[in-house]
Write a structure and sequence with these properties.
about 210 residues; alpha+beta; Nucleoside Triphosphate Pyrophosphohydrolase; ten-stranded mixed β-sheet; two-stranded antiparallel sheet; 5 helices; about 25% helix; globular
Length: about 210
Amino acid sequence: MSQDILRDDIEYLIHSDDDGNIIGPISKTHAHQEVIRAELTHYSTWSMIYYPKSGKYGIQLKNPKKHDKYSAGKWDMGVAGHNCYIKENGAFRPLDFDENLIKEAKEEIGIDIEMFGSKNEFLGSINSTDKSLGFIFDRFHYKTQTDNEWVGLGLVIVRDTDVKFEDDEVINFKWMAPNELKEFIEKNDNYCSPLPLVFDKVEKFRKENSI
């Protein structure tokens, strides 16, 4: 889609191939149509929020009035959102995973995070700063009968458990130890379908790196 026909009143997502190579913008409304969402791949940023002092993860409850029927009223990973295009200096450009995680963390739960481009820098900063930190540690293609996404998966380290819902997408947030979250997933079904996969991947990364 040519830049000169993009409209300011439409939100555009990043359309890509199955390997994450960007094809161009696609309107969010079009991308979420029932017959389209599982066929056209688009970028999404996913993450789990972790509070080291308590050893707990935070998960969010989506607003039941949310337009997406697959997530409305369900528990979900700490912070997540589709990567979109933003307009700068008269031109549209796609948000990368770092930028999008910063944006979504602020909008959904009101936290400011600093992103790191390397694992060593991220790990080395956990105990040397009081800032909340984020790192995208994995990228993969996630495809089901209802979803088709090129995912950047991150871990966010926070310094307290205070959250503030900046928009109306999230209505509750709770903290759970890994064993509690594992049990919650096993005994409940009111959660977004990617949550078990995301939890497993992040928990493996956390343990492997002694966080």
